[in-house]
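Appendix B. Raw example, untouched.
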Amino acid sequence: MIKPKLTPKQKALAINLDSSIYGTFAEIGAGQETVRHFFRAGGASQTIAKAMSAYDKDFSDAIYGKEAKNRYVTQNRLRKMLRYEVALIEERIPRENNPGKKFFSYANTVTTINFDKTTKGHGWVGVRFQNSENEEYNEIIIHVKFKETNPTLQQETLGSLGVNLIYGAYFYTDNPRILVESLYDDLSLDRLEIDMIDFSGPAFRYVDNRLMSLQLVKLGMTDAVIFNSQGNNMLPADILYKKNIFAVRGSFRPVTRVNIDMFEHGLEMFNQDNSCDHENTQILFEITISNLRAAGDIDERDFLDRVDILGTLGYTVMISNFSEYYRMVDYFSTFTNQHIGVAMGVNNLLDVFDEEYYKNLPGGILEAFGKFFKKDMRVYLYPYKNPEDGELLTSENLKVHDNLKELYKYFKLNKRIVDISNYNPKFLEIYSREILKKIVTHELGWEDELPKSVAEMIKDRGMFGYKELTFEGLN
């Protein structure tokens, strides 16, 4: 029998009745909605040490210090708040007089929807807490984007989310997946989006935050998550805002010389076409959830192997639920009005021009193209060599459906689809599926079809079914 989910009031009461849990609430920007649940639940006197809201920037600066560029709704601000408040508890509440106490500090820094409704509202929410009185502190940090168009409703949503987070910290620490799911207890996906989460501390020493990010996309809590080459979760808005964006989509199972050749020469053309440089361009290697599910349920080990390889090569990775390319480009456009480039192979472009993909879209393929080829978006097309007859397919001889030929010509003439000309012909007969078979069967030569560091990593870590041969295995 499935245990019914608790309401925010029930969760707040459960925490209030636990005499060992004791802490502070510091909420800035959307009222004191979280602590309100604890006051109303009853028994709050043994749980709440302090509740405050330093709305005025001067007061806030006097307590937590000034922020660079006067930005207050940031992850850095939230962490300052959490650590300052915990330090204050430790300073003012003697441990010897309070044996068994598990201290915590909950904080949020949020901006709700403005009067003109030009900004929807977002914020950072977190909790710093102990699982036992002698344990070092743990932290859970999340970033939220409100979907409701009423500030009062956004405040209420934030209050429920805060209760769920604190309850999860104390009751679901041993199961972070359940903790992530529980953040939406008494809430719905159409009320808010959680697009970043970060676990740290001794209770989460074995938690891989990339897997927690994957959970957000799997559960529909967000459309996309991003982590850098070091495997750290990144807020999409932070790294995409007002940037030129160049993306490569693939399975990257594993990364082949074709992937790198397409990326490097496509990026070179993108930079030349738009006078971009490294500082104002964000490169993304994107993997879709549908790709990860291609063989059934998502194999998390396989997922991490792919991401680790891309990270070793120095690339930033995005995991998304954008099955169609136009959704990916439309997503990028919410963060930037600069240039967008997508490198893809001929087969992928044929899919883009397949009307079957857009049957459920009200405006059909025209609506999709309006979102895909918006602004300065450009496709950099990598050629395909037909293994059956050796024909080389490029944008010049690509055959699309008859009713789309004129539309295709239009995008060609306006240079929205351009061929990657400076490719390496030797790489055109490299296919990742064939490489995977060779890795498993130990067929000679597969290493030459991958970047050297990738081949070495696969061998060292036994990725993608690779097993080192022994004398016994040779007999």
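End of appendix B.
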